[in-house]
Amino acid sequence: MIDIILHHYETSPYSEKVRLGFGLKRLAWRSVEIPAIMPKPDLTALTGGYRKTPVLQIGADIYCDSQLIMRELERRCPSPTFYPTGHGAADALAWWAEKTTFGQAANVVFAKRSDSLPKGFLEDRAKFSGRTIDPAAMQAALPNALDQLRAHFDWLDRMLADGRRFLQGSAAGLADLAACHPVWFLRQRIGPLAAPLDGFPRLLEWAERVATIGHGQRSPMTAEQALDVARAATSIASATPDPRDPAGRTPGMTVTVTPDDTGRDPVMGELVASGVHEIVIRRRDREIGEVCVHFPRAGFVVATAS
Ligand SMILES: N[C@@H](CCC(=O)N[C@@H](CS)C(=O)NCC(=O)O)C(=O)O
Fold this sequence. Notes:
Elements: E1 5-8, H1 13-24, E2 28-33, H2 41-47, E3 55-58, E4 61-64, H3 66-76, H4 89-112, H5 121-129, H6 135-159, H7 174-190, H8 201-211, E5 217-220, H9 223-232, E6 254-259, E7 267-274, E8 279-285, E9 289-295, E10 300-304
Parallel strand pairs: 1-2, 2-5, 4-9
Antiparallel strand pairs: 1-3, 3-4, 6-7, 6-10, 7-8, 8-9
Helix pairs in contact: 1-3, 1-7, 2-9, 4-6, 4-7
This protein binds glutathione.
Protein backbone atom coordinates (compact mmCIF):
# COMPACT_ATOMS: atom_id res chain seq x y z
CA MET A 1 0.00 0.00 0.00
CA ILE A 2 1.46 3.34 -1.07
CA ASP A 3 2.02 5.89 1.72
CA ILE A 4 -0.35 8.82 2.23
CA ILE A 5 1.99 11.65 3.20
CA LEU A 6 0.81 14.91 4.77
CA HIS A 7 3.12 17.93 4.71
CA HIS A 8 1.89 20.11 7.57
CA TYR A 9 2.67 21.66 10.92
CA GLU A 10 0.93 21.00 14.19
CA THR A 11 -0.66 24.42 14.76
CA SER A 12 -2.08 24.78 11.21
CA PRO A 13 -5.91 24.86 11.31
CA TYR A 14 -6.40 23.69 7.71
CA SER A 15 -4.08 20.78 8.52
CA GLU A 16 -6.25 19.93 11.51
CA LYS A 17 -9.17 19.55 9.09
CA VAL A 18 -7.20 16.98 7.08
CA ARG A 19 -5.86 15.21 10.18
CA LEU A 20 -9.46 14.79 11.36
CA GLY A 21 -10.27 13.52 7.86
CA PHE A 22 -7.69 10.75 8.38
CA GLY A 23 -9.37 10.04 11.72
CA LEU A 24 -12.87 9.86 10.22
CA LYS A 25 -11.65 7.46 7.53
CA ARG A 26 -9.44 5.56 10.04
CA LEU A 27 -6.40 5.91 7.82
CA ALA A 28 -2.71 5.32 8.47
CA TRP A 29 -0.57 8.20 7.20
CA ARG A 30 2.95 9.60 7.23
CA SER A 31 3.58 12.99 8.77
CA VAL A 32 6.20 15.39 7.37
CA GLU A 33 6.61 18.45 9.58
CA ILE A 34 7.14 21.60 7.44
CA PRO A 35 8.14 25.14 8.51
CA ALA A 36 5.29 27.52 9.37
CA ILE A 37 7.00 30.36 7.48
CA MET A 38 9.06 30.71 4.31
CA PRO A 39 11.46 29.40 3.08
CA LYS A 40 10.11 25.86 2.59
CA PRO A 41 12.52 24.46 -0.02
CA ASP A 42 11.55 20.79 0.39
CA LEU A 43 7.84 21.58 0.03
CA THR A 44 8.21 23.88 -2.96
CA ALA A 45 10.43 21.30 -4.71
CA LEU A 46 7.29 19.15 -4.75
CA THR A 47 4.70 21.82 -5.49
CA GLY A 48 6.64 24.09 -7.85
CA GLY A 49 6.11 27.17 -5.68
CA TYR A 50 2.79 26.68 -3.84
CA ARG A 51 3.66 27.35 -0.20
CA LYS A 52 0.43 26.92 1.69
CA THR A 53 -0.24 24.34 4.34
CA PRO A 54 -1.27 21.51 4.12
CA VAL A 55 -0.11 19.58 1.03
CA LEU A 56 -0.81 15.89 0.44
CA GLN A 57 1.61 13.64 -1.41
CA ILE A 58 0.87 10.17 -2.72
CA GLY A 59 3.89 8.95 -4.70
CA ALA A 60 4.62 11.51 -7.44
CA ASP A 61 1.15 13.11 -7.12
CA ILE A 62 1.01 16.28 -5.09
CA TYR A 63 -2.38 17.60 -3.94
CA CYS A 64 -2.54 21.29 -3.01
CA ASP A 65 -5.30 22.81 -0.84
CA SER A 66 -7.39 20.97 1.75
CA GLN A 67 -10.49 21.22 -0.48
CA LEU A 68 -8.83 18.96 -3.06
CA ILE A 69 -7.04 16.84 -0.45
CA MET A 70 -10.40 15.87 1.09
CA ARG A 71 -11.82 15.16 -2.37
CA GLU A 72 -8.91 12.87 -3.19
CA LEU A 73 -9.16 11.06 0.16
CA GLU A 74 -12.87 10.46 -0.51
CA ARG A 75 -12.07 9.16 -4.02
CA ARG A 76 -9.38 6.77 -2.82
CA CYS A 77 -11.03 5.71 0.45
CA PRO A 78 -14.81 6.19 0.06
CA SER A 79 -15.85 4.55 3.33
CA PRO A 80 -16.58 5.89 5.91
CA THR A 81 -17.72 8.80 3.79
CA PHE A 82 -17.18 12.54 4.25
CA TYR A 83 -20.69 12.93 2.77
CA PRO A 84 -23.21 11.15 5.04
CA THR A 85 -26.03 13.29 3.61
CA GLY A 86 -24.68 13.70 0.07
CA HIS A 87 -22.57 16.21 -1.88
CA GLY A 88 -23.48 19.80 -2.72
CA ALA A 89 -24.77 21.19 0.56
CA ALA A 90 -21.77 19.73 2.44
CA ASP A 91 -19.27 21.26 0.00
CA ALA A 92 -21.04 24.62 0.05
CA LEU A 93 -21.21 24.63 3.86
CA ALA A 94 -17.52 23.77 4.08
CA TRP A 95 -16.59 26.59 1.68
CA TRP A 96 -18.73 29.19 3.46
CA ALA A 97 -17.61 28.26 6.97
CA GLU A 98 -13.90 28.36 6.18
CA LYS A 99 -13.97 31.44 3.99
CA THR A 100 -15.88 33.49 6.52
CA THR A 101 -14.25 32.40 9.77
CA PHE A 102 -10.63 31.34 9.26
CA GLY A 103 -9.21 34.76 8.28
CA GLN A 104 -11.13 36.52 11.05
CA ALA A 105 -10.00 33.92 13.59
CA ALA A 106 -6.42 34.64 12.52
CA ASN A 107 -7.08 38.38 12.97
CA VAL A 108 -8.28 37.74 16.53
CA VAL A 109 -5.23 35.62 17.38
CA PHE A 110 -2.86 38.18 15.83
CA ALA A 111 -4.44 40.95 17.90
CA LYS A 112 -4.82 39.10 21.20
CA ARG A 113 -1.90 36.69 21.22
CA SER A 114 0.86 38.17 19.09
CA ASP A 115 3.18 37.23 21.99
CA SER A 116 2.55 33.54 21.18
CA LEU A 117 3.65 33.81 17.54
CA PRO A 118 7.12 32.60 16.49
CA LYS A 119 9.80 35.09 15.40
CA GLY A 120 9.30 36.34 11.84
CA PHE A 121 5.70 35.08 11.71
CA LEU A 122 3.90 38.41 11.29
CA GLU A 123 6.36 39.61 8.64
CA ASP A 124 5.84 36.36 6.75
CA ARG A 125 2.05 36.61 6.97
CA ALA A 126 2.13 40.24 5.78
CA LYS A 127 3.80 39.03 2.56
CA PHE A 128 1.50 35.99 2.42
CA SER A 129 -1.68 38.08 2.62
CA GLY A 130 -0.49 41.28 0.94
CA ARG A 131 -1.81 43.26 3.94
CA THR A 132 -0.11 45.45 6.49
CA ILE A 133 0.20 43.47 9.69
CA ASP A 134 1.55 45.68 12.46
CA PRO A 135 0.39 46.04 16.08
CA ALA A 136 -1.80 49.10 15.39
CA ALA A 137 -3.45 47.55 12.32
CA MET A 138 -4.04 44.28 14.21
CA GLN A 139 -5.74 46.08 17.12
CA ALA A 140 -7.83 48.17 14.71
CA ALA A 141 -9.06 44.99 12.99
CA LEU A 142 -10.14 43.28 16.22
CA PRO A 143 -13.67 44.71 16.84
CA ASN A 144 -14.87 43.89 13.34
CA ALA A 145 -13.26 40.43 13.46
CA LEU A 146 -15.20 39.69 16.66
CA ASP A 147 -18.46 41.03 15.15
CA GLN A 148 -18.05 38.87 12.05
CA LEU A 149 -17.17 35.73 13.96
CA ARG A 150 -20.09 36.18 16.34
CA ALA A 151 -22.54 36.45 13.43
CA HIS A 152 -21.17 33.44 11.54
CA PHE A 153 -20.75 31.30 14.67
CA ASP A 154 -24.37 32.05 15.54
CA TRP A 155 -25.48 30.57 12.20
CA LEU A 156 -23.39 27.48 12.83
CA ASP A 157 -24.72 27.25 16.37
CA ARG A 158 -28.33 27.40 15.17
CA MET A 159 -27.72 24.41 12.90
CA LEU A 160 -27.22 22.41 16.09
CA ALA A 161 -30.32 23.81 17.86
CA ASP A 162 -32.49 20.71 17.31
CA GLY A 163 -30.02 18.62 19.31
CA ARG A 164 -28.30 16.97 16.34
CA ARG A 165 -24.77 15.76 17.02
CA PHE A 166 -23.22 17.14 13.84
CA LEU A 167 -24.01 19.94 11.38
CA GLN A 168 -25.89 17.75 8.94
CA GLY A 169 -27.31 15.13 11.29
CA SER A 170 -26.14 12.18 13.35
CA ALA A 171 -22.88 11.47 11.47
CA ALA A 172 -19.85 13.73 11.15
CA GLY A 173 -18.78 14.77 7.66
CA LEU A 174 -16.80 17.25 5.60
CA ALA A 175 -18.91 20.21 6.75
CA ASP A 176 -18.02 19.53 10.40
CA LEU A 177 -14.30 19.14 9.74
CA ALA A 178 -14.16 22.34 7.68
CA ALA A 179 -16.27 24.43 10.04
CA CYS A 180 -14.52 23.21 13.14
CA HIS A 181 -10.88 24.12 12.53
CA PRO A 182 -11.25 27.90 13.08
CA VAL A 183 -13.07 27.10 16.37
CA TRP A 184 -10.27 24.66 17.28
CA PHE A 185 -7.68 27.36 16.52
CA LEU A 186 -9.41 30.03 18.64
CA ARG A 187 -9.99 27.59 21.46
CA GLN A 188 -6.33 26.66 21.54
CA ARG A 189 -4.99 30.20 21.28
CA ILE A 190 -7.39 32.33 23.31
CA GLY A 191 -9.50 29.76 25.16
CA PRO A 192 -13.22 28.88 25.20
CA LEU A 193 -14.28 31.56 27.66
CA ALA A 194 -13.14 34.65 25.74
CA ALA A 195 -14.92 36.41 22.85
CA PRO A 196 -15.84 35.25 20.24
CA LEU A 197 -16.39 31.71 21.62
CA ASP A 198 -18.05 32.75 24.88
CA GLY A 199 -21.80 32.56 24.54
CA PHE A 200 -21.69 29.49 22.27
CA PRO A 201 -21.60 26.49 24.66
CA ARG A 202 -23.41 24.28 22.13
CA LEU A 203 -20.80 25.07 19.50
CA LEU A 204 -18.01 24.23 21.91
CA GLU A 205 -19.63 20.88 22.78
CA TRP A 206 -19.88 20.13 19.07
CA ALA A 207 -16.18 21.04 18.63
CA GLU A 208 -15.31 18.61 21.42
CA ARG A 209 -17.34 15.88 19.70
CA VAL A 210 -15.53 16.56 16.44
CA ALA A 211 -12.15 16.35 18.23
CA THR A 212 -12.95 12.83 19.46
CA ILE A 213 -12.78 11.66 15.82
CA GLY A 214 -9.00 11.72 16.28
CA HIS A 215 -6.26 11.74 13.66
CA GLY A 216 -6.06 8.12 12.46
CA GLN A 217 -2.72 6.36 12.67
CA ARG A 218 0.19 8.74 12.22
CA SER A 219 3.86 7.88 11.79
CA PRO A 220 6.67 10.34 11.10
CA MET A 221 8.60 10.74 7.86
CA THR A 222 11.45 13.12 7.05
CA ALA A 223 11.22 15.64 4.22
CA GLU A 224 14.17 13.89 2.54
CA GLN A 225 12.32 10.55 2.62
CA ALA A 226 9.26 12.22 1.07
CA LEU A 227 11.40 13.62 -1.76
CA ASP A 228 12.82 10.09 -2.30
CA VAL A 229 9.25 8.75 -2.57
CA ALA A 230 8.45 11.32 -5.29
CA ARG A 231 11.72 10.57 -7.11
CA ALA A 232 11.00 6.83 -7.24
CA ALA A 233 7.30 7.08 -8.18
CA THR A 234 5.32 7.76 -11.36
CA SER A 235 2.19 9.92 -11.32
CA ILE A 236 -1.22 8.29 -11.76
CA ALA A 237 -2.45 11.26 -13.84
CA SER A 238 -3.23 10.71 -17.53
CA ALA A 239 -4.26 13.10 -20.29
CA THR A 240 -7.93 13.95 -19.72
CA PRO A 241 -9.43 16.79 -21.76
CA ASP A 242 -12.38 18.78 -20.45
CA PRO A 243 -14.81 19.05 -23.39
CA ARG A 244 -16.70 21.83 -21.60
CA ASP A 245 -13.69 23.89 -20.55
CA PRO A 246 -15.02 27.46 -20.85
CA ALA A 247 -11.68 28.76 -22.19
CA GLY A 248 -10.94 25.82 -24.50
CA ARG A 249 -7.86 24.71 -22.55
CA THR A 250 -6.51 21.30 -23.59
CA PRO A 251 -3.86 18.87 -22.35
CA GLY A 252 -0.35 19.84 -23.47
CA MET A 253 -0.83 23.60 -22.97
CA THR A 254 1.50 25.40 -20.59
CA VAL A 255 -0.49 27.04 -17.82
CA THR A 256 -0.02 28.68 -14.45
CA VAL A 257 -2.26 27.92 -11.48
CA THR A 258 -2.44 30.47 -8.65
CA PRO A 259 -4.54 30.75 -5.47
CA ASP A 260 -6.90 33.73 -5.72
CA ASP A 261 -6.68 34.83 -2.07
CA THR A 262 -3.43 34.44 -0.11
CA GLY A 263 -0.04 32.89 -0.90
CA ARG A 264 -0.48 33.86 -4.54
CA ASP A 265 2.59 32.08 -5.95
CA PRO A 266 1.93 30.80 -9.48
CA VAL A 267 2.87 27.21 -10.33
CA MET A 268 3.70 26.60 -13.98
CA GLY A 269 3.40 23.29 -15.79
CA GLU A 270 1.92 21.34 -18.67
CA LEU A 271 -1.81 20.77 -18.39
CA VAL A 272 -2.52 17.04 -18.06
CA ALA A 273 -6.12 16.80 -16.88
CA SER A 274 -8.88 19.19 -15.91
CA GLY A 275 -12.52 19.26 -14.99
CA VAL A 276 -15.05 21.15 -12.89
CA HIS A 277 -13.25 20.57 -9.59
CA GLU A 278 -9.63 19.69 -10.38
CA ILE A 279 -6.75 20.67 -12.61
CA VAL A 280 -3.54 18.63 -12.88
CA ILE A 281 -0.26 19.98 -14.25
CA ARG A 282 3.01 18.14 -14.88
CA ARG A 283 6.31 19.73 -13.97
CA ARG A 284 9.94 18.70 -13.75
CA ASP A 285 12.10 19.41 -10.76
CA ARG A 286 15.89 19.28 -11.02
CA GLU A 287 16.16 17.20 -7.84
CA ILE A 288 13.15 14.92 -7.92
CA GLY A 289 12.23 14.61 -11.61
CA GLU A 290 8.67 14.60 -12.90
CA VAL A 291 5.67 15.14 -10.61
CA CYS A 292 2.03 16.00 -11.20
CA VAL A 293 0.57 18.79 -9.09
CA HIS A 294 -3.21 18.78 -8.52
CA PHE A 295 -5.25 21.88 -7.61
CA PRO A 296 -8.95 22.59 -7.01
CA ARG A 297 -10.75 24.87 -9.48
CA ALA A 298 -12.81 26.88 -6.96
CA GLY A 299 -10.46 29.51 -5.52
CA PHE A 300 -7.70 29.15 -8.13
CA VAL A 301 -6.85 31.16 -11.24
CA VAL A 302 -5.70 29.23 -14.32
CA ALA A 303 -3.84 31.29 -16.94
CA THR A 304 -2.43 30.16 -20.25
CA ALA A 305 1.31 30.76 -20.31
CA SER A 306 2.04 29.98 -23.98
N1 LIG B 1 -7.45 27.13 0.92
C1 LIG B 1 -6.32 26.57 1.59
C2 LIG B 1 -5.94 27.44 2.78
C3 LIG B 1 -4.67 26.98 3.43
C4 LIG B 1 -4.10 28.01 4.36
O1 LIG B 1 -4.35 29.23 4.27
N2 LIG B 1 -3.29 27.52 5.28
C5 LIG B 1 -2.54 28.37 6.16
C6 LIG B 1 -2.14 27.58 7.42
S1 LIG B 1 -3.53 26.84 8.19
C7 LIG B 1 -1.26 28.76 5.46
O2 LIG B 1 -0.98 28.26 4.39
N3 LIG B 1 -0.49 29.65 6.06
C8 LIG B 1 0.78 30.02 5.47
C9 LIG B 1 1.79 28.92 5.49
O3 LIG B 1 1.62 27.88 6.15
O4 LIG B 1 2.81 29.10 4.83
C10 LIG B 1 -6.62 25.12 2.01
O5 LIG B 1 -7.81 24.79 2.12
O6 LIG B 1 -5.69 24.32 2.18
